[in-house]
Amino acid sequence: MSLVGEEGFKVVRNMPEGEVTDEKIAEVTGVLLNIVRRTLFILYENRLASYRRVRDTDSGWLTYLWKLDLSTMDRQLELESRKLLKNLKTKLEFEEGKVFYTCKKQCNRFLFETASELEFICPVCGEELEYQDNEMIINALKKRISSLEEMTQGAYA
Ligand SMILES: [Zn+2]
User: Fold this and answer.
1) Structure pTM?
2) For residue range 49-75, what is the model confidence (pLDDT) as tens digits?
3) Which of 2, 10, 29, 73 is 20 to 30 A from 106 (CA-CA)?
4) pLDDT for residue 88 is more than 60
5) 104 CB neighbour count, 10 Å cutoff
6) In angstroms, what is the span from residue 32 Cα to ligand 1's centroid?
7) Of all helices (H) and strands (E), which one includes residue 129?
C-alpha cells in the first residue's frame, strides 16, 4: 500500500493471473489506465512485476504482457520494515531527553535553545512559545517500535 497507493493496491489485489495487458487490467480492476500503468511501473522497479513484449503479427504493434511476481514480497516487506524501524528509532532518539516549545497554533516546534533565542515568541504567528510535553509522542513511538520489532522478529527470524 505504501508503495503503490490505494488505487495501486486495488490493481495488485484484483490483477488477473498470468500474462495480461495493461488495458485488460484496467478493465478488470476498474482502475484508470494511467494509474494501472504507473502502478505496473512501480511494481516493475521493485521487482514485483515483469513484462514481455510481443509484436502483433497483423498490426505490427508492440504489446506489453504483464505478470505479477510476488515471490520476493517477503524480502521487500522485510526491507521496508527494517527501514521503518530505523526511522522510528532515529525519531525516538531525537525526541528523548529534549525539551520542546511550541505556540498555540503549533506552527513549528523548537528546542529550548532555539526558543530562548527567539525570546519565546513564535516567528510565524507572533504568539508566545510554551513548553510542550512530548511524553505522548515518545510513548507512541516506543509502542510502534516494539510492535514492529515483535512482528519482524516473528516473521523473519
Ligand atoms: Zn505560531
Assistant:
1) 0.57
2) 999 999 988 888 999 999 998 888 888
3) 2
4) yes
5) 11
6) 41
7) none
Q: How far is the CA of 127 from the centre of ligand 1 (A)?
A: 6
Torsion of CA 146, 88, 5, 8, to 10 degrees: -60
Biggest CA pair distance of the chain: 76
Domain ranges of the chain: 5-68, 73-156
CATH architecture of structural domain 5-68? Orthogonal Bundle (1.10)
Ligand 1 mean position to 64 CA, how many Å?
53
The pLDDT of residue 90 is: 96
- CA 117 to ligand 1 center in whole angstroms: 15
Q: If you measure from the C-alpha of residue 114 to the centroid of ligand 1, how many angstroms do you get, rounded to a whole number? A: 14
Pair type for strands 109-111 and 100-102? antiparallel
- Give the CA-trace dihedral at 98, 99, 105, 106, to 10 degrees: -10
Say what the pLDDT of residue 76 is.
79
Give the mean pLDDT of 150-155: 70
122 Cα–ligand 1 center, Å: 5
Residue in the block written with cell 512559545: 129
**How far is it, in rounded angstroms, from Cα 85 to Cα 88?**
5
120 Cα–ligand 1 center, Å: 11
